[in-house]
Amino acid sequence: MLRWILGGRGAQGAVEKSAALCIGEEQPKNCFTELQVLKGHFDIVRFLVQIDDFRLASAGDDGMVLVWNVETGERLVELRGHTQQITAMTSYTFIRGGKPHTGLITASSDRTLSLWDPDTGNRVQTVSDLQSSARCLLVLSGVDVWLSGGNELCVWSRDFQLQCKSVHHRDAGSRHSAPEQIHHQLMRCIRAWRTPIIFKLNLSEVEMSVLAIRHLADHQDTIRALISINDGLFASGSHNGELILWDAVDWTIQAYEFILWEEQAGDAQPEIRVGQQKQTDMSIQHLATDGELVVAAVGSGLYVYNAVMKTVVAYRKIAHDSDVLHTMLLDNGQVMSCSEDGSVRIWELQDLPLPAEPAPSGFFGMFGTFGRSGKQTGAPMKKLLDISGLRSLELIGDLIGHSGAVQMFASFGEKGLVTCSADHLLIAWKDGERESQLRSLALFQKLEEMQGL
Amino acid sequence: MIGSPDLLAFTAETDFREPPTDPLALPEELSIPLCPHSSNSSPWTRTSRVKFSKDFILIAEFSEQVGPQPLLTIPDETKACGSFDLNHFSLRIMSVDYQTSFAGPLGSSNAKLNFVEDAKVVLGESREGAYAYVHHLTLYDLEARGFVRPFCMAYVSSQEEKIMHHFPQLSAEFSKVSECLKTGNRKNFANELDKKLGDLEYTRLILLREIRREQLSSEPVSEISGGGEEMVNGRFAWQRVNEDKKGNSSLSQTREEEKLKEKEGCEFSVEEVGKSKDMSGLDKGNESGSVVLSTGADGGGNNRSKRKERFESLKETEEGQSARLRWPDKAAELASVEKAIQEHRSLLKQVTSYPTRKLRDPEFLPYEPDDAPHTLEPDPNPYTQHSLIPEPGVECSVFTHTSSRPPQLVSSSSCRRFDKRLKNLEELCDEYFLQQALKQLRSIEKNFRGDSSYLFTRQLTQKLLQHLKSTNFLFEEPCDLVVETEQQLHKPEVRPSLLLPVSPLQSEPVSLESYTSCVEMVPIKLQVSMNGQFLAEPNSVPSSPCCDDLALVTDAPTECDCQDREGVPIQMKDSISSGESIEVLGTEKSFRTQGTHISIETVPLRPLSFPAPFLEGRKRRVATQRTNSEDSIEVLSTTDSIIPDDLRASYPSAIHEETSECEGEEKDRTSGQEDKGVEGCRCSSGEAAPAEGEEKCNNFLRTPGTPDTPTIVLTPPDPCIDFALNNVNYLDSHTMAGPLFPMVDAGSLQEGPLQLLRDDLSDCTSYLSLASTASEFTLSPDLHWEKSVGGSRRKRARLGRTALRFLRQFPFAVHAVYSLLSGRTLVVLGSEETVVRRWVTALTIYTPHVGKYRESIQPWTSDPLQITDLLTWKLIGFNRMASPTSPGMPPCLVRYSRYLSVLDVDQRTLRCPAYRGSLICPLVEPRTQIVHGTTYYLYAQSVISKIVSRAFLLTFCHSLHLPSSQSEVSAERCYCDLHDDDMKILNFLSELIALQLTDNTPRILRFSYTASTVFKL
Question: From which domain of life does this come (chain B) (predicted)?
Fold first, then answer.
């Protein structure tokens, strides 16, 4: 591991140079001009959870949860207790004594679930000896319960009392489940395997129960990502590049996109790589949405889809040199993505200068089928994307600093961005100008306190 | 013949400077005193008529036998003084003595020690052109007249101004040395007094015995036996004491022995007395001893006979002594001896209580007579009245144990012998303290070495820098800052004497307090306990000779836990035998809290029991012996009761620390420096003819063993000068013989190193010529050249030199400098470590210190860079060979290329953002004009400090930092009117200042997304 961190990136970097799209060093739109390294983890850092507007929890394979002050880079608390890697972490806000408290729920491979108080560093609650370790955690808003998903789906109350369990064991081999809250009141959770399963959570005074009410068997491959877009829609992405939009009420397919990066010859675009396409190139690793746009990390590319208009907004086949692991839509319409290649890239959706021209990027196959009909897998229809709405995804900046795969990032708005990586580090990226001003103000304040120098 | 020396008035210039009234004037601490030199004089050293080549420190003594005489000089006489007449000069300086009084007349009943304050004067010997700061001090010597030996330490210089200007510092420094010496001296003096007291006591006893014997010879035998009874009682008492003093282990055995001895002694004494009745005469003691022993030997076993033999021999010597002394009038002698005992005891008390007193009273004046001992002290007569005259056998048995110095008989006539050799300084002063003092003197010499102007400006610089806390961390050599702080530590004011409220021999807190206190407090504690004991059993008191046994017991290298001892004599054995230094130290801590009142107590308590001081003396001897041993010092320093800083503070170590990092280099070149001084002139000829110089350089390159191998010697940073200088002699012998170095003809090798060498040479020669005009500091070789002022100066010269070389070699140097000054990490990439290191050294000048000093510079590394490295390192020497797979740029550099500027010294390229501003151009312009390294260094410093001051202003320019103000941009422009690149520099420096001031130093890396340009040579 270490070897790879120290030296491995180098070789990859060399390759990178040849194929990557390179923005160069002038990035006027990139506001991240200051970085701070947050050191503390001993292994891959996989999860970042924002606690409040300045605190951040990070967790990873070393079983530690560290709470950071993003503004100062200070490490506030260390939450130690898990003996194995942490597999999921989420923040959990609850009301206690009339005031909202934010706790952290962590799940670990040691088959425990813990609730932590990030203010004090105390382990408030622990559940151990689970049948399987939880792979994901979801706090349901509105009702005071949270879910853990592993091989089974468990519903927990605030006091860490197991409320109910799914009895569904069909996918015993499933290593991956992604519950997502879909509707208000009506709680359905989809368990990711080849078929999403809709669970219904019955809330009653006496007991809770989880019932699988629907199996959506339209995906042809493993579902990798699942996201609820808005009240009426949710989306799922599969390993082979299918992106399906579902209606959240009647579970019909609203849109079916089969993303297939077309091999392209004769195109001089540098980002087109000639070669055998691998399956993973189309795997949808991550979905992000702002309620309208859905960003899909497809292999090493990015794909932006308008869920309302049911149209493709923009795409870039090779956005990174390696698989994109995490994406995010920023408020200002920018898209951020991080990848195994150790970089974070910032994209901007720009109108194409001349809409009439063919898209400068690669082609993709698209099956725009509406309703349930589009299930067949014929040869992708090849068409020039001269759709008027098509925009381009332009790279406006990249953040280089990690020497391992960037696992995730968390944005604190203007306070900056924190990335975590396989090189055990977290890096806080900030706006240098702003920080400088803040420091000046701090200095003046201090001078006032000290009455001069 | 001896004219009175010129006594110079000392006035500080500052006295006449009127306080600044102008509100816009600089604050007091930043204002620069007027130039101290009168207008007509050059600031540099005049070539004077003095016969010594450099300043030196002279220690002289006014010997009561031969008058003023020089003792030693620092540096050694041969080096420092040349043909200067030290004898004459010491006569001059010692003829001025401003001490008000010496000790009272000898032989008065109250011998007093005068604790005279040192006198400090500046003397000038106008004829010789020598000026001296003279520090008079007195050391105590029991054998000297009035117990004092006048000494003086003089800082001799040819420049009056130098001494005048540095009078306060000199005074402070020399006071420290003086205190050190005096402390050591007091210690030795106390030891000496102890010994003398022991001798006197012994003499008194012998005398008493003699007198008694004479009385006995005219009285009936029955009385003798009565006397014997009493004596036995006395012996019991003694035995008790003895037991108390002995270790448990030896206790039983001792008892056995004592019993044996007791019996023996009884018969012995009876026999002896019987014999002595018959025998009258001066040598009766001697004879009786031998006779008795020869008869008594039959009665005992082996053991006893051996013992008796020892008795015999001892007795013989002592009796023989006493016989030989042949006191004409024993009564008178006894009286005088007792008087002497009192005197000495008083002296001992004075000398031991001096520091305590001094500490208690900050305005301690020269010693005031204290009559308390005499009034409190019991009349010695009772002892004789009690007729507890120790019987010879017992006495002897005691002495058999004495392994150390046996007490000597003293006679009043032998007290003063003026033909006797006087103690030298080593004997007068405890070795450790003497060494410390000499060390300090050496450092003084080093510190004040150099031209007066130089010292003055250096002082000014340091003083000013000291006040520029907000910016001085950026580029200044930390030594400039450290020295000052260290000096503050060294301030001669009496520091709070928290550490040793009680240590008896401790004088000034300045020196080695903790050390002394640990060692010296023991006797006081002991004394308390002894007093308690004796108070409880007054009968046991008089058997004073037995106390020698006590001394003997404690003679083992033992320590005593003072607390254990208090009032519980038995326990003392344990602690004596078991104690290690650590134990004592442990008590020191506790002592701190309780110490003061104890010491006060002891003073009145002591006189109550007569032998207490004696015991104390013995004890002290034991205790002080420890101080001589090295390991005890080590142990002391390891305990936490001693704050290491305090120990350290007493050493003038500032200088050592300041350039410790270049210590190795300096050491390497000490030999070279010697040559340098000698060969300076010859070298400078090389400068006159550059071609020749180059040729010489080529010769330098050739090592004697392999004359034809064209090796370019590439050594660690700035090695060339060493090389050249080390080989100067070699060069001289080979210049004529050697043909041109083949390398030049071939021209095959790159010219870099050659030029480097020439640069070096030219620079060093010019430096030498400079040195020869300022004949002060470099001309005379000094083996002990240390990392001091000269060291840092040398370092600067070297830095400047390499920087100049860099500027000359790389026309695009300005861009590299820009990278450094704007906070962009510069990587010097190369395959040869020496080359890389050299250029890193060259660029050091321009590298702001981020974080701790030198932390931001990594001269040579092969590890792939991490992002965290970039946060700390701003200047990196990188090994190209670290990643042999990629011949071009190592991948980690490629990866972080946006944060890095890369200077490839192999391919001679520089990849970094181009600089288009004008601010730092002055830094690189003088590549042609300035020749000397030092000059460039100072020049660069001044340019940089100008930039720093602008950055400072920028930091505190309110409007620039308030966000969203309309005037922001305009203000920035108005204020600076600078190119963006220049703003970047200022912003970076200002950022550093802000971070420093807020004490909040999160490790951040600020960067900008700007395109790099590749510059090629």
Answer: Eukaryota
